[in-house]
Amino acid sequence: MSEAVETTVAEEEIDLAGANEILDHYVGMPGALMPVLQAIQEHYGYIPEPCVHLTAERLNVYCSQIYGVLTFYAQFHLEPRGKYIVRVCKGTACHVRGANRIGDTLQERLGIGHAETTADLKFTAEYVACIGACGMAPVIMVNDATYGSLTVQKMNEVIDKYVSMD
Ligand code: FES
């Protein structure tokens, strides 16, 4: 069983060169904050705290304003995320076909709860609403790949595949 990530990455471990390069492109442009934050998340996989301070300084906005945006929009993440994001659909069709058992087994196997990430940063597990593949219920997604008509055993086989990948 893996341990969930409990602490943020220390400030000194973040290489700000990528964020500075992004900011070089946007400094002085009106409405730059959202595209800057999206680009930073794309680059780092989440929004590291030092990048918030850097962005505030270079775009001349308050950190509180940036945190307001980051907490309002669900697309932004303030903690490191796993290389593989496993989304377990808990929509009605999946729910009646056993999504809870699949989700519980997945979380037990990975040792993490909803929206948590394994300590090795390999997996993040999330419960989500209908992902539009109800005919294949119950369904999970791993990044952009969809796996349907799952049993607990089939879900474990899917996860086995990603465990064995880098
Ligand atoms: S309810 Fe799960 S895909 Fe629609």
Question: TL;DR of this structure?
Answer:
By secondary structure, the chain is α+β, with helices and mostly antiparallel strands. The chain is 43% helix and 12% strand. Strands 2-3-1-4-5 form a five-stranded mixed beta sheet, covered by helices on one side.
Give an overview of the whole structure.
The protein has 166 residues and is of the alpha+beta class. The protein folds into two domains: 11-72; 84-163, 3-Layer(aba) Sandwich (Glutaredoxin), CATH 3.40.30.10. It has seven helices and five strands. It has helices at 17-26, 33-44, 49-59, 63-72, 92-96, 99-110, 152-163, and strands at residues 84-89, 116-117, 123-128, 140-142, 145-147. Strands 2-3-1-4-5 form a five-stranded mixed sheet, covered by helices on one side. Strand 2 and strand 3 form a beta hairpin. Helix 1 (17-26) packs antiparallel against helix 2 (33-44), helix 1 (17-26) runs parallel beside helix 3 and helix 6 (99-110) packs parallel to helix 7. The chain is elongated and about 50 Å long. The site of FE2/S2 (inorganic) cluster has 12 residues, from helix 5.
